[in-house]
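Comment thread on ticket #2218

A.B. wrote:
> Attaching the input chain for the structure job we discussed in standup.
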Amino acid sequence: MKKLIPILVVGVLALSGLGAVALDSDIEKLDLETRDYEKPSSSTSPRDYTHTVFVEWGSACFCGPCASWSSNIWNVYNSGQYDFEYVTMIVYGHGGWGDILNTKANSWKNLYGFTSYPTNIMDGDYRRQTNQPSAFPGNLNACGNRAVHDLDGTLTVTWQGDAVLDIDIEIENNEGSAYSGYIRVPITEIDSRYTNAYGQKYHFGFLDYPFPMNKAITIPAGGTYTDSVTWDGSQHKDNHGDYFDDIDPENIQVFLGVYNNANGYIDETVAALPEAGENNPPETPEIDGPISGKAGVEYNYTISSTDPDGDDVSYCVDWGDDTEVCMGPYASGEEVIVSHIWTEQDTYTIKVKAQDEYGLESDWATLEVEMPVNQQVINPLLQMILERFPNAFPILRHILRHILRL
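C.D. wrote:
> Ran it. Output below, let me know if you need it in another format.
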């Protein structure tokens, strides 16, 4: 069975096998849903496999051969000649054999029972190899030419902001008998936060399994299996205590591997980048500060807005005197102090608008501020009244004196 894998483009993959290139940050909010993932181009077509091969390889950050293999598998992947995906299961950190970096990666390692690094588990252990670059193409071909069950998998990953992913799975069984197996769904960083012994970043570095590592599934003949989960990076961490609340949606790729109960081999592989969740504009800002004052004096105002998606927000403030200032970004809900001096007596309307990091804007918030007649104008009038009527108009006398103190 040969089919196109419905996966989205990985923006950081180089098109010539030279490595990663920088991500373009000047985009609308996760404009990824239309980006079909294409393997890097090459002078030859990818091998015509029955399915996309899936390689899970175990690594230790301090391991020199692991660093060498990390470069080798990345280069083969970028060659575009082989139809495969891979995840780097980083079991140990730089602190040696006692420094287990990720408990779930270690559980995966224990499942296959290997002790040397690197070890590549190919298509669910249909082939296994260590740091042997010359053997890799042959093993890929052997896996890719296997007969597999006729399954069609779809993986949808939706970014909800604040390191939250909604992950939806659909697997169709196109055969005339029931399918019994299990799934693994590793979340990875395309450019990993972890580095190898050469100080280079791993690629497709494992973070977590949002579903149980080997979740059992049964699909009736001609039937469909569906499942979904919401994964919050702020609720998960590695063994060093570092939470995954700082993940970048443009640097995340999620995989679905469907394994056959009969032999544990892969029957279907799917990969996906996050799609855009619904983006909402920030709330109308709040403005707090004095509503009257004197021209020529600086006044402070506190502004804040909350973004429903937790996005950072920037502000533009129109002071009503033909001056405007924009600033940010700031965290959603953070209070920001801005200052201004009106040079002339008048009544002004302050307007404040918030904008999220993807360009959606709030409504304008307004606050009217009065800069009343200054004392240079009032003093002569007041002086005349008080001199001519020293005992009259006590209320007016009090009001005028109060005005002078503003």
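A.B. wrote:
> Thanks. Noting for the ticket: Helices lie at 64-79, 103-112, 136-144, 375-388, 394-404.
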